[in-house]
Amino acid sequence: MLLNCHTYYSFCYGTLSIEELSTLVKKAGHQSFALTDINNTSACLKTLRLHAKNEMPEGLKPVIGVDFRNGVQQQYIVLAINNQGFQEINLHLSKHLHENLKFNDIAPSFTNAFVIYPYHKYKGQALQANEYIGVSPKELSRLSFSPVKLQTHKLVALHSVSFGGKAHHNAHRLLRAIDNNTLLSKLSIQEQGHADECMIHKEDLIRAFRDYPHIINNTEYILNNCEVKFDFGKLSYKNKKYFSGSRSSDMDLLRSECENGLKYRYNTIPTEVKSRITKELDVIDKMNFASYFLINWDITSYARRNNFFYVGRGSGANSLVAYLLRITDVDPVKLDLYFERFINEFRTNAPDFDIDFSWTDRDDITKYIFDTYKHEHTALLGAYSTFQHDAVTRELGKVFGLPPAEIDKLQSLKNFEQADHIGKLVLKYSKLIHGFPSHMSIHSSGIIISEEPVCAYTGTFMPPKGYPTTQFSMLEAEDIGLYKFDILSQRGLGKIKDTLGIIQSNAAAHPDKKINIDIHRVEPFMQDEKVKKLLREGKTIGCFYVESPAMRMLLAKLKADDYLRLVAASSIIRPGVAKSGMMREYIVRFRNENLRTQARKKLPELYDILAETYGVMVYQEDVIKVAHLFAGLSLAEADYLRRGMSWKYKQRNEFYRVKDNFFANCAEKKYPPLLIEEIWKQIESFANFAFSKGHSASYAVESYQALYLKAYFPLEYMVATLNNGGGFYRKELYIHEARMHGAEIKMPCINNSTALCTIHGKTIFLGLGMISELEQQSIVDILDEKERNGPYLNLLDFTKRVYLPIEQMRLLIRAGSFDFTGKNKKELLWEIHALINPQYKKVKMKELFDIAPKKWKLPKLNGNIFDAAFEEIELLGFSLCSPFDLLRDGIPTRLTSAELPSYIGKTINITGYLITIKHAITSKGDRMHFGTFIDIEGRWIDTVHFPPSAKQFPFTGPGCYLLKGKVSSEYDFISLEVDEMKRLAVIDREKLIES
Length: 995
What we know:
TIM Barrel; Arc Repressor Mutant, subunit A; five-stranded mixed beta sheet; 43% helix
């Protein structure tokens, strides 16, 4: 008989999970309760699923609705009588959240919902048949003297439940203080719930209303007459049902487009392709997924029409239909991709497509989806931001008034008992609040397109992106049968697209090369010797997914110069695979035939299942294969096990049932217990982090596209890389890489640069946008004027045509943007101060007559390389000269990386410029590092810093280091095991100025 229950999805107010709330309700003797979170429906579907799956206390019936409030001030509660009522509630809630409107004192007219006004908010208006007045036990004394008591058929018991006891009430007050950004001592009474908003036993509630039995009867009437139902069963499919109007027409269109795709993809159609396409289409038809495929096809077709680059990946790349529809560029037949990973008759969820677009095109794609499939049926997928330990400790510390230094100590405190009284309270409640949802955010990529209006399932909010967003996450969406379309963005595709355009504009530099490249015909790239050489030698800087130090190391150890090895490398580089030991095991078996033979003899059943990967689990499909063929789970159970490695699914009873079946089946097959445990640990440690093979294959395709462009057009590719924000490394390294390929690098120029970097022949001009503190409007004004009236002649001409403040002019001069005038920067700085009054205000006026400038006779003002270098560091963040040129005492040793193979096993000294550091923790908990440097010739030095060295000789900042250590080689990858190192001093700029 509870009409107003909150979970912690009443953000920064409630403190109970759905499970905790339902358990408390049952213990208090109630048979039903109304879930009414504040302006939120996040918990509704999960609550209904738990009830439908019999995972709620037996005999307990949930009713769903919303507690409509302005801030914490309750206006009215609305409970859904049926599904139509739930939709009405969601529409009302969404309208106010989208437009940031306050809720009126009087609710709108609901047809399929009950409205309950709190007693203290009731204004005496005439009530409709479905409207009631809620009276709390503490308000009964006032009711006895009010005419409202005469409306006996309109009164209900209204007791709010927001927390589970004293500790939870304290947590509630702390959450309210966090939400109001105030000290707990200054939190107003009006901003917090009453202390009695905890669970009340049914008998106590009945006893409180013993003089008003009709109130209890009315309350029970409402709860008994509310029931919202959804189908949470197998293949409960709620996405847009038909793409073209009917199931049969969808399948006809799908078959027709597959026929077109066969002509596009194959000169001669292999027999296995024909049988595979028949099989896939039959399963798609049987499971009614044609619309899902066609919508993805429609999205990618729109992208191609608009020259938007994309990569279709995820398990969707396992589908031949997806390949023929050009959703993906991966041939699953050629790669022997496991179709059952993507879709099978036993799988309970829909196929999974992830489509990456360039970061510059994604917003256009999103707009197309909403415009085409209509806002009423389309929404971004929400996500929950949760309180995490460090963040909530900091917030609670602020609420208690602790200074930042004290909070820092608490965050790093390992022993709870070392804290003082306040510190213990902070840590106690940070542990309680940890994991609570704090607010709604947006899923990184998910969009849902539903057959019914989105508001049939959820309220929506309007984030800054400007599109309706669900109040539930991916997990609840899947539960109800709403399967997302993943529309992602990345910069790698922007690099490829921009490179093709830059090649065309710089065509004069390549008279002997083919510049019209079909970038989607990847097969020739895979056979190209220059591309293979880049892979073998790890010269992959700037190339998608293969440029990191770890990937360069892996490529070298695998001698990866073919597609299949690159696909494998793309998966085993993932942290979960490396953590499980599978990456190293794969490498050693690949390089050692004897170890492969031993592995086959030791466990032939497992080796035969995973023959392609030498008996090692590398891909997500391998989990399914092992679970199905080794442990005897059904395909549905095996796929659930793969997905179940996510913590979100591990919380569910279904996961533990599948886990139990895994161990029981293996025991029945007489496998040794230690072997079963070992295989389970391998699955558990890496399954949630490994890629599907199709996903890895899609990434490898994009890597090949990038590698081909770098192999034949390295300068254009580096310009595109810089213009798309770089990649794994700092921009400085990509400029260095361009120089290594013969480029001449110039500072930003007002005549040759745009906001982005440009290339003319082999000369690269850095973009004006790279100059620190140069305002965007200044860049726009410079470029617009140049577009209208041509290049600038000199500084005087510029000042007549573009009106910039003196500070902006100084930045341009110091950055070398006027070097084309032939004057040095010191002369130009004197000249600009003579031309522009520092107090000048931006007023654009055309002079009637040109006034000849005054001529100034200046002494000779000379600059030097060091002046320029320090200016560049200040304005760009790095210098265009070699970092070794700035060393105060010169280069201590001239040994190069190319000479290291001659010193394997020996201790050497070498000078390196630090590029990047990767920190790691050993199994004993000690810190160690992996470093990446470049030598005096600009080539890689890869270093390993074991715990003793890491502790005694830590990194002390960016710059050049003298490294001492032993040269080692493992499977053709050379590294330096550092024993000692020190950062080398650079020239002192102040002393340079004084001299």
